[in-house]
Amino acid sequence: MIELIGIVAGVFILISLIFRSTTKKTEILMRVLNSFGAILFIVYGLQLPAYSTAIINFCILCVNIYNMAVLLKRIDEN
User: Which of 41, 18, 34 shows the shortest CA–CA distance to 71?
Assistant: First the structure.
C-alpha cells in the first residue's frame, strides 16, 4: 500500500511537469497536480518513515500554495 502511494505521487508530479504553462489556468492546474503529488509524498514519507521526503515535499507544497495564491490574485486583478 505504501509503495502504491509513492507511485501515484510520482505520477501526479510527472503529469504536472508535462504541462506547458502557457496560460495562468494551465499553470494553476500544473500547481494543483504537483500539490497532490507533494501531499501524497508527505504521506508516503511519514509512513515509511522517510522524514526528509516528507519535509521537502511539505516545502514544495508551501511553494505551490504561495504561487497559486499569486496567480489567483493576478487573475482577479484582470
Answer: 34
Place of cell 514544495: 60
Inter-residue contact 33 to 64 (CB < 8 Å)? no
Q: Which residues contact 64 (CB under 8 A, 6 or more apart)?
A: 31, 32, 34, 35, 38
Q: What is the pTM of this model?
A: 0.90
Amino acid, res. 43: V
Q: What is the DSSP-derived secondary structure letter of residue 37?
A: H
* pLDDT digit string, tens, across residues 13-61: 999 999 887 888 888 999 999 999 999 999 999 999 999 999 999 999 9
SS3 category, 10: helix
